[in-house]
């Protein structure tokens, strides 16, 4: 979460007249995180989050994102619930941006996840996959391999500025993944961005999942592979097998991977690492310092890509019975 668009108290008070959540008492911007502007609202009706959707989020995708949150919440998944306006719509406008209000979720994201946290994340992800199975809307994964390739086309000419020889190395990754990428695994709704800052805890208890703005339909096991990348590497870039075992065991305690999913996990983890390397590399090379998009060092995910290249079986991630 972050703030890129400022709003005045007058604008906000007018905006809130479209909702039945009481009168504004106070508000503040949330400094951390993603690609939208976020504010905590305190009203006479309670505490809420206001999100202004910035340029990287298509307005046409908002019914999917917000509808999915409603669907999951109704299925018992702990996640924010969009608040309907008086006219029944979920999307309004403020400061020239489409905007929505969602319920406030208690908890904090953990800076140093433990194996216990990872187990809970695995269980929550599997629960999300099961709960989303009958969600009626569909959204193509814009960050599939074709999306990675598009970013790469805009970065490959300068990739060697990051590390000599990187362009040839990444081209080889694309060729390998194109040849090995699975075609017929179980699909459904995935979160696609379940990093630690998108999972709230109260102690060791997971209190909820947030930030569904990359959610889409894709291989369920790809979502799990992304969590391996997001949760199971340490600050020194080493892979933590204990955390990975806990994450996978937690997932399988709710939804068992089939044999094809287990066999595909190394290539899915390799692809997921390349996907996040591509977004980081593109922004690193093209986004000016101080711009709206937060720049992250691409070498963090380059190290993950290199790690997954050497993995031959999901058992090396700690998956039992693979």
Give an account of the 3D structure:
This protein has helices at residues 9-16, 62-74, 115-131, 145-153, 166-180, 220-231, 241-252, 259-286, 299-309; strands at residues 24-29, 37-43, 46-52, 92-94, 97-103, 187-190, 199-202, 205-209, 216-219. It is an alpha+beta fold. The chain has two domains: 9-103, Phosphorylase Kinase, domain 1, CATH 3.30.200.20; 115-317, Aminoglycoside 3'-phosphotransferase, Chain: A, domain 2. The strands form three sheets. The protein has a five-stranded antiparallel sheet with strand order 1-2-3-5-4, covered by helices on one side. A two-stranded antiparallel sheet has the order 6-9. A two-stranded antiparallel sheet has the order 7-8. Helix 6 packs across helix 8 (259-286). The longest helix has 28 residues, at 259-286.
């Amino acid at each position: 979460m972050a703030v890129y668009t400022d709003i005045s108290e007058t604008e906000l008070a007018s905006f809130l007249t479209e909702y039945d959540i009481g009168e504004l008492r106070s508000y503040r911007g949330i400094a951390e995180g993603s690609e939208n502007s976020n504010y905590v609202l305190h009203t006479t009706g309670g505490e809420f989050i206001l999100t202004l959707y910035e340029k990287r989020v298509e307005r046409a995708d908002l019914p999917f994102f917000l509808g999915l949150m409603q669907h999951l919440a109704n299925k018992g998944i702990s996640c924010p619930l969009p608040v309907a306006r008086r006219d029944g719509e979920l999307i309004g406008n403020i400061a020239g941006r489409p905007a929505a209000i969602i319920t406030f979720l208690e908890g904090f994201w953990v800076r140093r996840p433990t194996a216990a946290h990872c187990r809970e994340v695995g269980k929550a992800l599997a629960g999300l996959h099961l709960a989303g199975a009958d969600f009626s809307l569909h959204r193509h994964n814009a960050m599939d391999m074709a999306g990675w390739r598009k970013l790469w086309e805009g970065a490959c000419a300068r990739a060697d500025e990051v590390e000599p020889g990187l362009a040839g190395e990444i081209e080889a990754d694309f060729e390998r993944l194109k040849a090995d990428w699975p075609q017929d695994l179980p699909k459904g709704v995935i979160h696609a961005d379940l990093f630690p800052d998108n999972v709230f805890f109260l102690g060791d208890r997971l209190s909820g999942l947030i930030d569904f703005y990359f959610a889409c339909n894709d291989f369920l096991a790809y979502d799990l592979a992304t969590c391996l990348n997001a949760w199971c590497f340490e600050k020194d870039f080493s892979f933590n097998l204990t955390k990975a075992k806990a994450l996978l065991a937690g997932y399988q305690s709710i939804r068992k991977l089939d044999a094809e999913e287990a066999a595909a996990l190394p290539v899915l983890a390799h692809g997921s690492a390349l996907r996040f390397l591509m977004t980081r590399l593109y922004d690193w090379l093209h986004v000016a310092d101080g711009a709206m998009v937060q720049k992250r060092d691409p070498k963090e995910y380059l190290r993950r890509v290199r790690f997954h290249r050497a993995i031959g079986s999901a058992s090396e991630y700690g998956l039992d019975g693979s």
